[in-house]
């Protein structure tokens, strides 16, 4: 029995999920694993059938009376579906998981919809691929789930949405819609734009240049493989906060480019150094494991490209009582080995490196 199945659900079903794509089906999987009755609905019969076949929930039946409704549809139809669900099921709490919170709320208010039982929310989770076939119950584990309440939100309604977030393994965080949209512009929407623009530079690059690509560029552009149709909606709905960040970023890029045009000019090297230093300071502010802002020490192990080697490495680190705080894998084209960059708590680096070398592992580098 898994940890998920062993826990008692806080959420009382049935839970109606409108939209059986990645987020909707993933919520369905997580709740179904807890024994919650999940009703799935989707305008696409194929998407709905796939989500049901994979076990995310069941089809709607006559007389179903949901205790909670989750709207998981694209941003450009979120307001329409929220309004429909509120009117179809009066008194039932409706939440949505759209990545933009202010625009749907404003549209609903302009229409005069009774929003007493509506609570916007947004799980900060996802995958590069969408659709029911990519859904997983664990994508919310340890991730923030923003809940946007106002002074009129009944406490019992708020408790339902927060219970949903906790049941799927997420961490509820209360924000206003404005705070949410400014925040995701900085940490989600602009990073998507930057990754996409950088990756677009590869389309006309020489093959020999691309063969030099290492893990750094792969990390930087990982999220570039995203659906353009969805991001047109997201960026359009959150355009003002995104533009504010892009304008500031453009100014930084212009200043750095000016310095690089004449690196020997007075102040140029300082401008370049300050740009890199500010990046260091920004990265240090990002929450790490368990929400802590901590620096780790890293080392790189060369691993033969054969079955079982990574498992053996993990096992021997366990024998050394070394906990892995983070891990990155890199494979060089044509090479018969991989590189595992392992992060450990400060002070554990030397014990890990010495212990592994004594066991025959090849250490490529170690940085404290």
Please supply descriptive tags for the structure shown above.
four-stranded antiparallel β-sheet; VC0802-like; 12 strands; 368 residues; eight-stranded mixed β-sheet; 46% helix; 6-phosphogluconate dehydrogenase C-terminal fold; Rossmann fold; alpha/beta; 14 helices
Structure notes:
The protein is of the alpha/beta class and 368 residues long. The chain has three domains: 9-175, Rossmann fold (3-Layer(aba) Sandwich), CATH 3.40.50.720; 183-285, 6-phosphogluconate dehydrogenase C-terminal fold (Orthogonal Bundle); 297-367, VC0802-like. It is built from 14 helices and twelve strands. Strands 3-2-1-4-5-6-7-8 form an eight-stranded mixed sheet, sandwiched between helices. Helix 4 packs across helix 5 (102-110), helix 7 (177-200) packs across helix 11 and helix 11 runs antiparallel to helix 12 (268-285). The longest helix is centred in the middle third of the chain and has 24 residues, at 177-200. InterPro entries: 6-PGluconate_DH-like_C_sf (IPR008927), NAD(P)-bd_dom_sf (IPR036291), PDH_C (IPR046825), PDH_N (IPR046826), Preph/Arog_dehydrog (IPR050812), Prephen_DH (IPR003099).
Helical fraction: 40-55%
**Total strand count, please?**
12
How many helical stretches? 14
The domain count comes to: 3
CATH topology of the largest domain: Rossmann fold
The profile of the biggest β sheet is: 8 strands, mixed
- Strand content range: 15-25%
Q: Order of strands in the sheet with the most strands?
A: 3-2-1-4-5-6-7-8
What string gives the helices and strands in order?
Answer: HEHEHEEHEHEEHEHHHHHHEHEEHE
Structural class: alpha/beta
The top-level CATH class of the largest domain is: Alpha Beta
Q: What CATH architecture label of the largest domain applies?
A: 3-Layer(aba) Sandwich
Backbone shape: globular
Mean pLDDT: 90
Task: List segments where confidence is low: pLDDT < 50 over at least 5 consecutive residues.
Answer: 1-5
- The CATH superfamily of the largest domain bears the name NAD(P)-binding Rossmann-like Domain
Radius of gyration: 24 Å
CA-CA gap between termini: 40 Å
Keywords: Oxidoreductase
Enzyme class: oxidoreductase
Protein name: Prephenate dehydrogenase
EC number: 1.3.1.12
């Amino acid at each position: 029995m898994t940890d998920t199945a062993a826990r008692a659900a806080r959420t009382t079903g049935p839970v109606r999920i409108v939209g059986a794509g990645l987020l909707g089906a993933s919520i369905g999987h997580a709740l179904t694993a807890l024994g919650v009755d999940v009703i799935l609905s989707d305008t696409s019969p194929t998407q709905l059938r796939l989500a049901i076949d994979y076990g995310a929930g069941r089809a709607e039946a006559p007389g179903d009376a949901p205790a909670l409704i989750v709207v998981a549809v694209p941003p450009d139809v979120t307001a329409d579906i929220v309004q429909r669900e509120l009117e179809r099921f009066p008194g039932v709490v409706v939440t949505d998981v759209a990545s933009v919170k202010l625009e749907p709320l404003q549209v609903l208010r302009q229409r005069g919809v009774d929003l007493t039982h509506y609570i916007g929310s947004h799980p900060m989770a996802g995958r590069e691929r969408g659709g029911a076939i990519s859904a997983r119950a664990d994508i919310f584990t340890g991730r923030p789930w923003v809940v946007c309440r106002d002074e009129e939100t009944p406490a019992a309604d708020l408790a339902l949405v927060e219970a949903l977030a906790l049941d799927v393994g997420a961490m509820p965080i209360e924000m206003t819609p404005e705070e949410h949209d400014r925040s995701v512009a900085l940490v989600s929407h602009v990073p998507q734009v930057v990754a996409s623009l950088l990756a677009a530079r590869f389309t006309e690059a020489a093959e020999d240049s691309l063969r030099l690509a290492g893990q750094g560029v792969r990390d930087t552009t990982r999220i570039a493989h995203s659906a353009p149709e969805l991001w047109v909606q997201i960026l359009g709905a959150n355009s003002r906060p995104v533009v504010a960040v892009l304008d500031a970023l453009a100014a930084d890029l212009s200043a750095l480019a000016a310095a690089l045009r004449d690196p020997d000019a007075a102040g140029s090297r300082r401008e370049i150094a300050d740009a890199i230093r500010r990046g260091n300071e920004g990265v240090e502010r990002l929450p790490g494991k368990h929400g802590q802002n901590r620096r780790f020490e890293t080392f790189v192990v060369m691993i033969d490209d054969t079955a079982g080697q990574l498992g053996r490495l993990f096992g021997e680190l366990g024998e050394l009582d070394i906990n892995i705080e983070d891990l990155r894998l890199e494979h060089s084209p044509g090479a018969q080995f991989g590189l595992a960059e392992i992060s450990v708590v400060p002070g554990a680096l030397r014990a890990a490196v010495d212990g592994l070398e004594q066991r025959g592992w090849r250490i490529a580098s170690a940085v404290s």
